[in-house]
Each structure stands twice: as structure tokens, then as C-alpha cells.
Amino acid sequence: MTRRANLGLLAFLAVAFVTGWVAFAYGTAPSRWALIVHAVSGFGLLVLVPWKSLIVRRSLRRRRPGRFASLVLAVVVLASLVAGLLHSIGLPWWGPFTAMELHVGAAIALVPLVIWHVLARPVRPRPTDFARRHLLRYGGALTLAGAAYAASEAAVRLGGLPGAHRRFTGSYEVGSFQPDLLPATSWLFDSVPTIDVSVWRLRVAWPGGERAWTYEELWAFDDQIQAILDCTGGFWSEQVWAGVWLNRLFPERRPGGSVHVISHTGYDRRLSVATLGQVLLATRLGGEALSPDHGYPARLVVPGSRGFWWVKWVRSVELEDVPAWWQLPFPVQ
Ligand code: HEM
Ligand SMILES: Nc1nc2c(c(=O)[nH]1)N[C@H]1C(S)=C(S)[C@@H](COP(=O)(O)O)O[C@H]1N2
Ligand SMILES: [Mo]
């Protein structure tokens, strides 16, 4: 019994961890499905708490070494759970971090703790763990978890809490069509650079050629799009952007592969050439020149993709003969 409760906890934790990142990777349908599974596995951990507390009580009496680390693990799991729930409910929150930052930060801190815990307290699954009578139990725990999630969503709606209005990615709307209210944010460590457009050039390169564009030349384009920026930090905002479709900066006939977009700060993303007609290199937000914190002189607008694809302060755009998946799934700066 206790062994299977431990295995269940580990499975729920692993599923929650993976689906959290899937939700971060997508701004479209997969994010919705991932977050439903994510929430159910989060509630699954809570469902198993009564069994786990029996295990914990018994184990504490034995005074085994490493108890302290196990308790830290429990506290960090609970911190992540509580922060995730507070974000989803939308209750006010104070402190140096947002609920979502604390949620993900705690989840990342869990990785070494969980690895240590599993190595220090190994649980070997046995074939009988998958016997039919146990499968019913697992099904029961899953059903309870699903029901708890459904009940919490219903409560958020009935209670008229802010969480009722969040997007399927879990993000809250901020300042749509009011450029001044669009939050300025970075993925991790980038800070706003100072760029002098009289010397700045956008480098556009492809196999066999390249061209440098001045700010004035780019400013002359007026391709427009209304798009939602959905930051994994937990906000979204719809704005009108203007600039130039990326495919217009390249020669008509070009090979496949991907486009490597590099920021003045070194931050970079790689996009599939198939999408270039829908990706805007924006010079304007709401009809005005970009402000430095929103990417002046030029930044990407990638509709349907999470904010971290919207590279700011773009310095060069290079067509290369490598596939778009040839990059880390998330930036590291
Ligand atoms: C293994 C540790 C984790 C656990 C136990 C966990 C659990 C939870 C729970 C219980 C919620 C509230 C669900 C709801 O009521 O809607 C939540 C929300 C959320 N989590 Fe996690 N999570 C974990 C890791 C992560 C990671 C690593 C990420 C992202 C990289 C992430 C992203 C999110 C997001 C975006 C939401 C908001 C969903 C919404 O508002 O609908 N989580 N998480
Ligand atoms: N060069 C660079 N571009 C970047 C980032 C960054 O850290 N560096 N952060 C990205 C993230 S995570 C988001 S959500 C958006 C935020 O755009 P905004 O500050 O205009 O709202 O910019 C993206 N572009
Ligand atoms: Mo973001």
C-alpha cells in the first residue's frame, strides 16, 4: 500500500513537471490539454496526502539520516502546489516574485530533491502492483483528482474569482490595445540595451547573399497584425503591431531550413521558414515607434507562439540550412 502510494506520488510529480513545460512551449491547443492533465496531477498529489502522511509519520519515528532533506522536499512540493493554485485562482499576491515565478522556481528546485529522495529511499515496483485490483485503486485516485480539479474550477467560476477570466494558457489579460499598459519583461537575465539607430543595421543573410537594412528602410513598411502576446510569466495582451513580414526581407526563391533570429543581447530563437509569411518584424506598437523596453528598434511578433519567441532588439536574421528544431526548447538567458 505505502509502496504504491509512493509510486503514485512520483508519477503525479513527473507528469506535472513535464506537462508544465509543454504548456510553456505552446501558445495553442497543446497548452490547453497539457494544463488539464497538469492540474489533475497536481490535485492527484493532494489526494495521496492522507496515505503519504501515514508513511511520513512512521518514517519520522525511525529517525533515519536524511530526514531533513525529505522534509524540505515536502515543503517545496507544497509551496509549488499552493503557488500554482493561487495563480490559477487569481488571488492577490505579495512579495518579490509572482505566484507563477514561485510555482516554477519551486518545481525546478524539486528536481535534485526528488532524485536524491528516490535514490535514498528506493521503491521497486513489483509485477503485482499492476494487478487488476490495484488498477481500480489507481483509477479511483485519478477520478478523485479529476473531480477535485473540476470542483475547484466550478468554485472559481461561481465565486466570481479572477481565475474565471484567465486564458486557456492560465494567463491573465493586461492592457489590451493600450500599448502603455503592456508589461515589459525578459525571459531570464536580459536587460534593455541602448541602441543608436543612426548606426544600427539589421543584417539579413541567406546562403549566397546578405543585405543590411537601415531603420528608415524598415520603418517604411506598414504590414500590420493584431496579435496576442502570451508570456509564460502569466499575462497576455492583445495589441496592434506594424512592420514587415519576415519573408519580404529575403529573395523570392530561397531554400528550406530555418531562420535564426538574433537579438542585440545575444538572445536567439530559430523559426521554420514555412512560418515567415506570418511572422512580423515590428517597428511600431499601436502606431508609435517601439519603446526601448518593448524591443526598439525592431522586434518579432510571432502570433500563436509564447512570448519568449518574440525576440526583442533584433540585430540579425539568418536563413540557415538546419531544421527549426535544432535549438534548445527554451532560451537560457
Ligand atoms: C512537479 C511540480 C509541479 C506541480 C505539483 C504543479 C502543480 C500545479 C497545480 C496544482 C496547479 C493549479 C492547477 C489549477 O487549478 O488550474 C498548477 C498550475 C500551473 N502550473 Fe504547475 N506544477 C508543477 C510544475 C510546473 C512547471 C515546471 C511549470 C512550467 C514550466 C508549471 C506551469 C503551470 C502553469 C502555467 C499553471 C497555470 C495553469 C492554469 O492557471 O490553468 N507547473 N500547477
Ligand atoms: N532579446 C530578448 N527578447 C525577448 C526576451 C528576452 O529576454 N530577450 N523575453 C521574451 C519574453 S519571455 C517575452 S514574454 C516578451 C515580452 O515582450 P514585452 O517586454 O514587449 O512585453 O519578449 C520576449 N523577447
Ligand atoms: Mo515571457
Task: Provide a quick synopsis of the model.
The protein has 333 residues and is an alpha+beta fold. 40% of the residues lie in helices and 18% in strands.
Question: What report would you give on this structure?
Answer:
With 333 residues, the chain is of the alpha+beta class. The chain has two domains: 2-170, no CATH class; 179-320, Sulfite Oxidase, Chain A, domain 2. The chain is 40% helix and 18% strand. The chain has seven helices and eleven strands. Strands 1, 4, 5, 8, 9 and 10 form a six-stranded mixed sheet that branches. It is elongated, with a radius of gyration of 24 Å. 31% of the residues are buried. It binds protoporphyrin IX containing FE, the ligand Nc1nc2c(c(=O)[nH]1)N[C@H]1C(S)=C(S)[C@@H](COP(=O)(O)O)O[C@H]1N2 and molybdenum atom. Residues 182-187, 190, 229, 231, 263, 265, 267, 293-295, 307-308, 310-313 line the site of the ligand Nc1nc2c(c(=O)[nH]1)N[C@H]1C(S)=C(S)[C@@H](COP(=O)(O)O)O[C@H]1N2.
Please supply descriptive tags for the structure shown above.
single chain, alpha+beta, six-stranded mixed beta sheet, 18% strand, binds protoporphyrin IX containing FE, binds ligand MTE, binds molybdenum atom
